[in-house]
Amino acid sequence: MGLNLDYSDGQTPLDEEEKEGLLIPSVANKGELDEFEQQNIEEAIQWILGRSLKAETIFSERFVKSLHERMYGEIWKWAGQFRKSDKNLGIDKWQIPVALKTLLEDALFWVQNETYEADEIAIRFKHRIVNVHCFSNGNGRHSRLMADIIVEKLYKRSVFSWGAANLSKESRIREIYLRAVKEADKGNYQLLIDFARS
Ligand SMILES: Nc1ncnc2c1ncn2[C@@H]1O[C@H](COP(=O)(O)OP(=O)(O)O)[C@@H](O)[C@H]1O
Ligand SMILES: [Mg+2]
CA 121 to CA 164: how far, in whole Å? Predict the structure, then answer.
């Protein structure tokens, strides 16, 4: 076999941003990091599982932050805290609290007034909160878990299947997902709703 310059996914080194605030110094590469994060996320799901939650609770800054903290608190020092730097994705860091507040108020209104059906409310919320990009990392997974919580806790529906794939990794299914996200950017949510139930 010749020299393999192509890192397999499990060996992708962490970039500077990913190393910052890492609470487990032994993590050497992206594959290991993904596994630690996944374990932590499963604990967050356990925390959520038996609880009944009202719309007023779910759509609060406190809940949005504590869910992120529960998902990543064992891995990242900054889990559950709004990001302190600007990204290529998301709005200016100073606008996060107000943009999130607006979104939380809108979502509560949609639920109380049945503006859209359940899946559409969850997916619209998911899409908008990712575009706020509240945290330094983990926003995609956090937004999908928020959507799952909305349909399960508020509508007693089953959680989304999200293409039945790990969307954090490069894959054909992730490409389909990102195409649906871009359609949603233009105000067309149907592809993303269909994807979430596929
Ligand atoms: N053009 C894009 N490329 C990559 N991710 C995008 C794009 N547009 C929106 N996103 C969203 O941003 C998320 C990535 O943000 P990130 O904070 O790294 O989340 P995570 O670490 O959970 O993947 C994606 O899951 C996706 O929902
Ligand atoms: Mg990420």
Answer: 21
The residue written with tokens 């949603």 in the block is 184
Residue 100 structure tokens: 């999130």
Give ligand 1 pocket residues (Cβ under 6 A).
Answer: 89, 130, 137-141, 168, 178, 181
Separate counts of helices (H) and strands (E) for the chain: 10, 0
**Residue with CA nearest ligand 1 atom 26:** 140
**Which pLDDT value is given to residue 88?**
84
Tokens (6 digits) for 68: 């992120």
Q: Where residue 6 falls among pLDDT bands split at 50, 70, 90? A: very low
Domains and CATH numbers, the chain: 26-155 (1.10.3290.10)
CA-proximal residue: ligand 1, atom 2 (nearest)? 178
Q: Is the pTM of this model over 0.90?
A: yes
Q: Provide the 10 A C-beta neighbour count for residue 50.
A: 6
- Asked whether residue 3 carries a pLDDT value surpassing 60, the answer given is no
- Contact between 124 and 180 (Cβ < 8 Å): no
